[in-house]
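Ticket #4471: structure output looks truncated?

Reporter: J.K.
Steps to reproduce: submitted the chain below (176 residues) through the standard prediction queue, then opened the result file.
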Amino acid sequence: MPQLVEIGVLGRPHGIRGEIRVQYYAGSFDLLNGAVFLRAGSGPARPASIAGRRMHQGQPVIALEGVTDRTAAESLRGQALLIAEDRLPPAEGNEHYLHAIIGFSVKEKKSGAMLGVLDHVLFYGGQETWAILAENGSEILLPAIPDFVDAIDEASRLILVSPPEGLVELYTTGAR
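Returned output as attached by the reporter:
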C-alpha cells in the first residue's frame, strides 16, 4: 500500500442520498479525483471510490460508491479521507506539507528554549493549531500563523517560533 496522507475528515451527511460533507485540509479540490482511502480511528486504511463531488457553501460534498442513503453516510462520520502521498504536488517556495513536519523539534526563537516536538495538528474553526508535546508531558497549543511561526528547517528538522507572551507558561506552569 502506498504512503497515505490525510486530506480531510468525513463530516455529517448532506441530504438523504448518501452525500457527505468533508472537513477538507487540502488546497486543491482536484485531489478528490482518483483513488482515495478511508480510515476509522487508528485502524487500517481501505480503498474507496468517489462517485461524485461538488462544493456546497464553500465546503466539499462527496458521494462515495456504495453509500446511497443518509444512514450509510452517517456511519462514516469522523473517518479520515486519505490519498497516496505521491499524488501531492510539490510544495512551493517556503511552504511545507504538515505531514512532513510532524516530529520536528520546536524551539522558541527569542530565548532559544526548546519547547518540544510537533506532535499533531488540529483545526478549530478553520484555524490550524499545532500541538507541541513538551518534555514534561504537557501539550502546548500554538496557532500556526505567520506571526508565530518564524522558520521551518527541513534539513535540521527544526521549527523556530515566536509564541505570544505568556502562551507557553499557560500550558507548562504546574504541568506534571
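Triage note (M.O.): checked the attachment and the full C-alpha cell line is present. The two ends are 40 Å apart (CA to CA).
Status: closed, working as intended.
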